[in-house]
Structures are given as structure tokens and as C-alpha cells.
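User: quick one, sequence for these C-alpha cells?
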């Protein structure tokens, strides 16, 4: 009998768990000091909620749960996967938070500053550093329309990292609409912008040569691709207006970078990185990591 954990899953010895729990306690204490309140959401959600979300590639990685008992009618002809499942395991904590807030909004104050720490599940292909179950920690501010929310999220997370002994790290920040605007102004069709953004987002991981090769393999004109990459690689905030980016995008971004840089006390770096887009469809404006 195979006694190893299922591929992509992990188990932890007592010493490892003590370390993990210490890290978790530091994270929770620091966020609580910043006014974030802990909530819990279930690991299982209705499949319609999961599959109709803007989860990007994660929608292909959902662990789906079969219907049970009389609901599972295997004898019916022409059954599809959708007919056999009604639930699934959460692939992140943001979607459950959205449902939680919609369900409990009348009981919560505004703005609502919340944190979650929990296990999420993705049917990943097993590879180094990629797991099918792992712990996520999220903080969110709901019903705060100003960009002070972004400043607070960045400062609070940086404070956690510093409390854990990390310094000299970099916080990358951008706005998804910047890259979309630059790509569209470079003459690429609107329906290709999302795919090009995804390719550009990989630049810091795979390098610009491979990004260029990926775009050329997708059938884009070589001259256009090279002009776009040259523009993006040299893009700084001072260039955004000339690239057609609107002031209501530029001004808040400048302010967030200025405020968070001042708050950093030189312990970490705040950097504008135009290729940062993040992977989820529900990220529509300012993004950071």
C-alpha cells in the first residue's frame, strides 16, 4: 500500500507546523493591529458560482464534486460533466469573499476591512513548487472608493513582511488599464489585448526574447511586436500621458506610489512595473504584488 500523500498534497511534521503556526500568528496579529477583521468561508462552493467567475486559467483547475444520492442519475443518456457535478472546492479566497459580503452585507460596517487565511485547491499538474492544496492569506477593503485602500493594503502587507524579518523587498505596482491602452494604441485589435497582456506579464519570469517568440507564434506582425516591446520596456510614469493613458489612471497611481514610498522608510522599494497585470479577470484597475 502506498503511504505517500496524494501527488500535489503535503503533510507537515510537528516542528514544521509549529513554524507555520508562528508565521500565521505574526501575520494575524499584525493585520489585526491595522484594523482587519478575520472571517471564515467554506472550502466548498456551488459549482455555478465557481465556473461563472472571472478566475482566468484557474477555472480549468477546479476540483469538482459529484452529485450525491438521488441527484446523481448515471443512467440518463447523453450526460456531460456539468450534469454530474453541483459543487466544487474554492480555488482562491476572493470569490468566496464576494459571496460572503453579498450574503452578510447588512451585518457589516463600511468600509469593511477583512482578512482570511485558509486552504485553497487547484488541480495543478504536479511540478516543483506547485501544489494542489496550499494556504492563502488575503486582506481586502470593501466599500472604500478612494485609492487610500490601495495604500493601506500595500503598507499593511509590507508591515507583515517586515515583522517576519524581511527587508529590501520590492513592491511592484501598476494599473491594468495602462498596458491595455498602450497595446491598443500600438495598433493591435481590441480582442487580442488580454492575450498580449498575459504574455507581457511573463517577462520577468521567462525573459523578453521568449515573450517576443510567444507573440510571433500567435501570428502578430513582427515589426509591431518589436515596437510594442521596445515601448513597454522603456515605459515610465512620465511617458504615460503621451501613450494616451487617461489622467484618472495616472494621478491616483502617482499618489499611491508617492505615499507608499514615503511610508516604506527605505525598508523596501516601491516600483512601477507596467507589465504587471495579475492573472484574474476581476482585477480591473490598480494591481500590485
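Assistant:
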Amino acid at each position: 500500500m502506498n503511504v505517500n500523500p496524494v501527488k500535489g498534497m503535503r503533510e507537515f511534521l510537528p516542528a514544521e507546523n509549529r513554524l507555520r503556526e508562528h508565521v500565521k500568528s505574526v501575520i494575524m496579529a499584525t493585520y489585526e493591529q491595522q484594523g482587519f477583521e478575520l472571517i471564515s468561508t467554506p472550502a466548498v462552493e456551488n459549482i455555478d458560482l465557481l465556473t461563472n467567475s472571472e478566475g482566468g486559467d484557474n477555472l480549468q483547475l477546479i476540483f469538482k464534486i459529484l452529485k450525491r444520492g438521488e441527484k446523481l442519475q448515471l443512467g440518463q443518456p447523453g450526460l456531460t460533466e456539468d450534469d454530474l457535478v453541483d459543487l466544487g472546492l474554492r480555488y482562491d479566497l476572493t470569490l468566496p469573499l464576494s459571496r460572503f459580503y453579498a450574503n452578510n452585507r447588512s451585518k457589516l460596517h463600511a468600509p469593511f476591512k477583512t482578512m482570511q487565511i485558509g486552504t485553497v485547491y487547484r488541480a495543478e499538474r504536479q511540478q516543483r513548487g506547485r501544489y494542489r492544496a496550499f494556504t492563502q492569506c488575503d486582506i481586502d477593503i470593501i466599500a472604500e472608493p478612494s485609492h487610500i485602500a490601495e495604500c493601506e493594503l500595500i503598507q499593511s502587507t509590507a508591515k507583515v513582511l517586515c515583522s517576519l524579518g524581511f527587508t529590501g523587498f520590492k513592491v511592484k505596482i501598476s494599473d491594468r488599464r495602462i498596458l491595455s491602452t498602450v497595446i491598443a494604441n500600438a495598433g493591435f485589435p481590441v480582442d487580442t489585448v488580454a492575450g498580449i497582456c498575459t504574455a507581457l506579464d511573463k517577462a520577468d519570469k521567462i525573459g523578453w526574447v521568449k515573450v517576443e517568440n510567444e507573440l510571433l507564434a500567435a501570428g502578430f506582425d513582427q515589426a509591431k511586436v518589436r515596437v510594442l516591446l521596445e515601448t513597454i520596456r522603456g515605459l515610465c510614469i512620465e511617458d504615460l500621458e503621451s501613450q494616451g493613458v487617461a489622467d484618472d489612471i495616472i494621478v491616483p497611481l502617482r499618489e499611491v506610489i508617492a505615499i507608499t514610498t514615503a511610508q516604506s522608510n527605505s525598508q523596501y522599494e516601491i516600483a512601477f512595473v507596467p507589465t504587471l497585470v495579475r492573472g484574474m479577470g476581476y482585477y480591473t484597475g490598480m494591481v500590485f504584488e
